[in-house]
Structure formats: structure tokens, C-alpha cells
Write a structure and sequence with these properties.
The protein has a domain of 133 residues: Rossmann fold (3-Layer(aba) Sandwich). The strands form two sheets. The chain has a six-stranded mixed beta sheet with strand order 6-7-8-3-9-10, with helices on both faces. A four-stranded antiparallel beta sheet has the order 2-1-4-5. Helix 8 links the parallel strand 7 and strand 8. It is α/β, with parallel strands linked by helices. It starts with 9 loop residues before the first strand and ends in an 8-residue tail after the last helix. The protein has eleven helices and ten strands. It binds adenosine-5'-triphosphate. Adenosine-5'-triphosphate binds next to helix 1. Belongs to the ABC transporter superfamily.
Length: 273
Amino acid sequence: MDTSLAMHTAAIEVKGLYAAYQRQPVLEDIHLSLPAGRWTAIVGPNGAGKSTLFHVLTGSMKPLRGQVDAFGKAIEHHRKAGSIAYMAQREAIEWDFPISVWETVMSARYGHMRQDAWWRRLLPARWHEQRHCHAVEKALDDVNMMAFADRPIGALSGGQKKRVLLARALAQEASILLLDEPLAGVDPPSEQLILDVLKREREAGRTIVMVTHDMPGARRYVDHVVLINRFIRGEGAPDEMLSDSKLAELAVSSIEQSAYEVSVAGSPALATK
Ligand SMILES: Nc1ncnc2c1ncn2[C@@H]1O[C@H](COP(=O)(O)OP(=O)(O)OP(=O)(O)O)[C@@H](O)[C@H]1O
């Protein structure tokens, strides 16, 4: 990990962000400052824009407006440097291609290999370099999936796939981990395993930002919470943000949001093409 990055107090800063799909606004006027070396939970109802926020933070979606920096540098810089690891929701992945668990996790090392001298990049043996193999093995061990290393990725259960996706994010050895629902669809022992792994990663100085619907897990482990539903609905300590009254406000915003979407769908000015 680049330790100079960890000197900043904010890992991610978002200013005046607007994002939309086919002119339909999904995120509006988002201002955020996510603390470095801390564990942040992004909490919001279905369709609140949480995954969209991650798409913008990884640079895979261009916002309509606004600025997003990580450790004081544009997201594009981090995209090239591989300093932000992203774990997508399991449902968003195509599983039918014939690669093994080991190869899936090794793909997280491409960014490191790209930093090598050009002639090294041409060597097929780079896949077998000790530092890459060690990072993959450690990540698979962390999520208790080393025994499945040779299995085709498509031949795993849903919870096992999730652990492999987390291993891939860990193997990148990035400064920031963006995890979209890492706890969804896993059994209680796996959930505990994942929470323990993330706790260790946070203790090692990494910044973790995770989308979650698991309130007990968030209350117990995270340092910082962002409530979101198209707008930021609150940001602060877990005790305050995950209180019954705050969560009730968020639920009400969800009902209002649904009513808004119905009215926008009928509006010729914002209708999608
Ligand atoms: N590719 C897309 N094209 C058009 N609309 C989209 C697209 N992806 C998401 N949306 C819409 O954008 C809104 C926000 O979606 P997003 O996936 O960011 O929500 P989310 O908070 O991650 O939800 P969930 O908790 O269900 O995963 C939703 O209304 C969704 O229907």
C-alpha cells in the first residue's frame, strides 16, 4: 500500500455530484468526505443510488456534474494506479466464462503487472512471480477459499462466489476497498469471516467503503455511516445514523422517492428516450 496516501484525512471527497441514466436523475447534489483508514457503511433502500455512487467512484460512470477525488487526486489517476479495489454485487457478474477461482483472483494483479517494465510484461512467467502468487494465496486463505482454487468460478455456490469476489478485491492490495453488499447472501459463519477480514484490513490502514443492508453488522463494526436516497440523508457516527429515528426517516424518504419516480415517469420533460 502507498503509505503517502494514508496521510490524508479524507480518502474520498465528493463535491456537488449529479448522476443520471438516460436523463433520469439518480444522485443529486452529493457532498461527501469519507475518512481515510476508516470503515464506512453506505446505507439506503433499494434503488437509492448506492451502486451508482460506486460506479462514479471507480470512474466507470461519468457524472453529469461534480468532482470526485481520492486522496486529493482525480479518480482517473487511481484507475490507472489500481489504488481503488471494487467488489461488484454478485448479480452484476457474468459467471459462464471458463476460468478458475485462482485465475479470477489473479486478475486483480493486472494493475501491478502493468507497472512492470515493458519487457517483463511480455514474459508469460509473470503469472508465476512469487509476489503475485503470494497475494492471491493470502487473499484466498483470508476468505477460506484456498481449497477451491482450481475449481471453475461458475461451479461455486452463491456465497462461495461472494467470498472469491472479496478475495479478488483483497489481492489487489489497494488503499481503498469499495465493496457493494459484501455480506448479502452469505451464511452467518461466512458473514462473520468477512467482517473479521475487513476489520483486519481496516486495522492495517486500508479505507473500506461498503454498501450494506445489515444494520446489526454495521452498528457493531463500522466507524462512519452515510445514509443515502438520491440525496445524502445523513452522515456521521453509527450510533446516531443507525438510530431507529434516522432509519425511519430514511424509510419515509424511500416512499417519497417512489412517488417522485412515478410522477417523473409521466413527465414529458424528463422522460427517458
Ligand atoms: N443501467 C441503468 N440504466 C437505467 N437505470 C438504471 C441503471 N442502473 C440503475 N438504474 C436505476 O438507477 C436507480 C439507482 O440504482 P442503483 O443500482 O444505484 O441503486 P442501489 O441503491 O444500488 O439499489 P440496490 O440496493 O437495489 O442494489 C434505480 O432506480 C435503478 O433502477
